[in-house]
């Protein structure tokens, strides 16, 4: 079970999808970030989705030397502090060097480790020691299981860590999202986030800038939530074509609510399915039909079968096949489950 935690009064939990959203980078005109945070906060409150505002004060990883970099750490942190106080939301931004950590941690609630820096031990440890929560972006060159080592560099110091999937390199100028990533990284004991906007990028595919496939954001978000992510990371803008960074992959602000509404419905179905698994095991224990150890063993078998791509089996069927239950007990348990859930199971 992932370790969920609170970020400045925003409670991250398994029961609610949470959102990290904002512009790619702070622009020269402060009005853009104000419009975005005001709009997103209203949506998050309507949908009851915990919200963390994100914006980079400086972008270090640029395709071209002429690409827009941001307003810088001094000016950027002042503006993020104003957003935090005026709108009462936690704020997140990227850090790139150990030298930035102390100053950034005085303002930010979440320090984000960029994907290309996710293996940098000194940066990770410094972020963990800051007292802030840490969001590690999974490198495009990293397998999901190898991200365990990055997470452990944080958890050796602090438990306030989450990890974000943002696509994996697939040949030149292309990214793909392996949906196995979400259950794999959920086993690390921290919340797993899906970055639905960076994952549709075509890195360097736009003649000196990154291109993207914005129309693929919703399909990937739907799939990632169904696969078990706990939160979404979405860059939004009222006019993506005017964004100085990632204009081809950023989500129009006007589309955010519909995307989140769909994602929330899917998350509800995922939680209901998970609850059925847990509830069945609880009833087995209550009736003393099998030991808690047997239930845990059956859950482990079920998980292994799912990971190996085998046909999904109900927990009760696995326990029957393993000799932990007999057929009469299984029928009694299913009837009890029907009563408690109000759903016909067979």
Automatic annotation (TrEMBL):
Pathway note: Bacterial outer membrane biogenesis; lipopolysaccharide biosynthesis; Carbohydrate biosynthesis; 3-deoxy-D-manno-octulosonate biosynthesis; 3-deoxy-D-manno-octulosonate from D-ribulose 5-phosphate: step 2/3
Coiled-coil ranges from the UniProt annotation: none
InterPro entries, per the entry: Aldolase_TIM, DAHP1/KDSA, KDO8P_synthase
Gene3D superfamilies: Aldolase class I
GO cellular component, one term: cytoplasm
Location in the cell: Cytoplasm
UniProt GO molecular function: 3-deoxy-8-phosphooctulonate synthase activity
Domain DAHP synthetase I/KDSA: 15-271
UniProt-listed GO biological process terms: lipopolysaccharide biosynthetic process
Highest taxon listed in the record's lineage: Bacteria
Main location: cytoplasm
Enzyme class: transferase
Listed EC numbers: 2.5.1.55
Keywords, alphabetical: Cytoplasm, Transferase
Catalysed reactions listed for this entry: D-arabinose 5-phosphate + phosphoenolpyruvate + H2O = 3-deoxy-alpha-D-manno-2-octulosonate-8-phosphate + phosphate
PANTHER family hit by this protein: PHOSPHO-2-DEHYDRO-3-DEOXYHEPTONATE ALDOLASE
Assigned protein family: Belongs to the KdsA family.
NCBIfam families: KDO8P_synth, PRK05198.1
Name of the protein described by the UniProt record: 3-deoxy-8-phosphooctulonate synthase
Lineage of the species this protein comes from: Bacteria, Pseudomonadati, Planctomycetota, Candidatus Uabimicrobiia, Candidatus Uabimicrobiales
């Amino acid at each position: 079970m992932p370790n969920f935690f609170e970020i400045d009064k925003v409670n991250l939990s398994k029961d609610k999808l949470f959102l990290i959203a904002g512009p790619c980078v702070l622009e020269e005109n402060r009005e853009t970030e104000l419009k975005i945070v005001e709009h997103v906060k209203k949506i998050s409150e309507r949908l009851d989705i915990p919200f963390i505002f994100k914006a980079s004060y400086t972008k270090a990883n640029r395709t071209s030397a002429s690409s827009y970099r941001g307003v810088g750490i001094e000016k950027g942190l002042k503006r993020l502090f104003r957003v935090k106080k005026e709108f009462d939301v936690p704020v997140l931004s990227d850090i790139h060097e150990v030298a930035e950590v102390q100053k950034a941690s005085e303002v930010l609630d979440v320090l984000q480790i960029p994907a290309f820096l996710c293996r940098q031990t000194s940066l990770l440890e410094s972020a963990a020691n800051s007292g802030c929560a840490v969001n590690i972006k999974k490198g495009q060159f990293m397998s999901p299981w190898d991200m365990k080592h990055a997470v452990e560099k944080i958890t050796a110091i602090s438990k306030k860590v989450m990890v974000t999937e943002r696509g994996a390199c697939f040949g030149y100028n292309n990214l793909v999202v392996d949906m196995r990533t979400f259950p794999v990284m959920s086993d690390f004991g921290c919340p797993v986030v899906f970055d639905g906007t960076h994952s549709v990028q075509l890195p360097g595919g736009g003649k000196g800038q990154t291109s993207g496939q914005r129309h693929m954001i919703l399909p990937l978000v739907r799939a990632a939530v169904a696969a078990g992510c706990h939160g979404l990371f979405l860059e939004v803008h009222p006019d993506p074509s005017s964004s100085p960074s990632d204009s081809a992959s950023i989500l129009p602000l006007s589309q955010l609510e519909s995307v989140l509404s769909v994602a929330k419905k899917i998350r509800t179905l995922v939680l209901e399915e998970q609850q059925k698994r847990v509830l069945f095991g609880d009833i087995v224990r209550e009736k003393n039909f099998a030991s808690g150890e047997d239930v845990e063993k059956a859950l482990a078998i079920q998980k292994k079968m799912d990971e190996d791509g085998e046909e999904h089996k109900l927990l009760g069927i696995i326990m029957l096949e393993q000799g932990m239950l007999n057929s009469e007990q299984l029928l009694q348990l299913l009837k009890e489950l029907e009563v408690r859930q109000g759903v016909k199971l067979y």
